Predict the 3D structure of the following.
Amino acid sequence: MNITAAVVHEKGGPFIIEPAFLADPVNDEIRVRIVAAGICHTDLNSRDQFYPMPFPAVLGHEGAGIVEAVGPLVSTIKPGDHVVISFGWCGQCPSCADGQISYCWHHMEMNFSGRRFSGKAWDMPSPICLPVENDKPEPISGAYFCQSSFATHAICTEKNAVVVDRDVPLEIVAPLGCGLQTGAGAVLNTLRPKPGASIMITGAGTVGLAAVMAAKAAQCRIIIAVDMNDQRLALARKLGATYTINPKDEDIPAAVEKLVPGGVEFAIETTGNPTVLRNSVDALQVRGICGLIGGAKLGTEVSLEMTHLLFGRAVRGILQGDSVPKDFIPRLIKMYRDGNFPIEKLIRHYSFESINEAIADMKSGETIKPVLKMP
């Protein structure tokens, strides 16, 4: 079918709104009319080739919309269902068999190859084509996170689509598919702090602020937010942070020591900056755990003091908040409805045609979580 998509043609290039063609769903696939799509820093990392993906490409991996058609193997989702779309996973590797689907052994192929998974191999072309002069479609990279939701319509799978109640505002819950579930899940699924615990979160963007809200919901007594943007630190305090640190004004480990003698029990690093990760680990108390979320360019290394680690301290990599989206996204929606996860305070809406403006506002810090509303 004919659709409209935001296409990136070159490394670091703009998103160009243009006509495209979307294949019909096959096997366990479903076609979704996208209502809204969040913009995530991972989209920009892919545009900038932190994670190589052939161009041209249609990105977007925080889509939400209404199901229009389903493949012959789909049994739990039907046309008319409202869905939030999350990440892809194979369902066959040891991690998937153990229920740890965010650590699928084929995570990179499933989410960054630009191709569709047939169930056995990545031997199917992208579902998205661009028209050419002789009317012969030209396949381009699609199936980004098994969705490519920077488009009016997307192909996803039964596994990575989460059915939600029809009265849930899709333009609010769309970012649950990645950034929000990642930050909240790092707290609630991975670290699981006990009431009264201490936690530091570096980076007060979407992921970090989701972690702040989750830490408040988990009844952490000390919640320290770290960022270089004072406006974001002010918002972090409104969302539950008990203390804030601006690294431009003070050293992170030294500031933490003043607030929590001996260090914090938990830290979550969302920036992908090696220096900030080092500071996060240095601020841990004995047996403390630092959850690493921030995505860095492939090959980025960090230096840690070995004796410091010997005292039971640990760094734990976290993908997608250790989430099983079909279970965790409904849990977050309930928290949102109960007033315990006010994600609307992070969101600013933009028209689809304003995607490049939305990205500029996100990069400048003016907007925390831009969400595109489709025509």
